[in-house]
Design brief:
This protein is an alpha+beta fold and about 160 residues long. It has a single domain, classed as Aminopeptidase (3-Layer(aba) Sandwich), CATH 3.40.630. It is about 35% helix and about 35% strand. A hairpin with a 2-residue loop joins β3 and β4. The protein is globular, with a radius of gyration of 15 Å. About 20% of the residues are buried. The structure holds coenzyme A. Coenzyme A binds next to α2, β4, α4, β5 and α5.
């Protein structure tokens, strides 16, 4: 199968439903630290706050040439030098190597816009083997397993941008 190419664009208000569906997908909830389904009302408040936040950026990945939305990559600034990354690949696009592509394209885009950020952190549930594989492939290194605030185990993976 030929390799898929993707492009990223900033998330827009019109993407609210798309992100809601991806957030509430069964696997996404299972691998999230808060596993309950999210209501539309709760999502809309979160999404509008996210779009207006200066410390959060969300990009939508689109498969070329059709521009089919295939996932999202989100960055949260933790400090002027450090950001956290989070990704979701749309259920119908999983298993095609797009996780790696969305991370690489996202880090590149985020770095161009935020050159002071030299460290990107991914917090991953220990049992999320697919996620660990894609982040490792993109240069992230395992740092530690720790107990999170709400009594869940998390693995911290880190990418240093040089
Ligand atoms: C995790 C996720 C981003 C992976 O993206 P993807 O494009 O579907 O990744 P792929 O299917 O290409 O798989 C990547 C690798 O993991 C492997 N893999 C897939 N499922 C696996 C599983 N259940 N156990 C072990 N390895 C698995 C694949 O074989 C592949 O390995 P390879 O690179 O050696 O071929 C995607 O499944 C997803 O969106 N999951 C739900 C949300 C999520 O987990 N987000 C990350 C939270 S930190």
């Amino acid at each position: 199968m030929p390799e898929l190419e993707i492009a990223l664009r900033p998330a827009e208000p019109e993407d609210a439903r798309l992100l809601f569906n991806w957030r509430n997908d069964d696997l996404t909830r299972q691998v999230s630290f808060h596993s309950e389904k999210i209501s539309w009302e709760e999502h809309i408040v979160w999404y509008n706050n996210s779009l207006s936040s200066t410390s959060r950026q969300i990009f939508i990945g689109e498969v070329l040439p059709d521009q089919s939305p295939c996932g999202q990559v989100r960055f949260d600034l933790l400090s002027p030098e450090e950001a956290e990354i989070s990704i979701v690949i749309a259920p119908e696009w999983r298993g095609k190597g797009l996780g790696k592509k969305i991370i690489s394209a996202g880090v590149e885009k985020f770095h161009v816009e935020n050159p002071a950020v030299l460290t990107i952190i991914a917090n991953i549930k220990p049992e999320n083997a697919a996620s660990k594989k894609v982040f490792q492939h993109c240069g992230f290194e395992y740092i530690e397993t720790y107990m999170g605030k709400e009594d869940f185990l998390s693995e911290k993976w880190l990418l240093r941008i040089s």
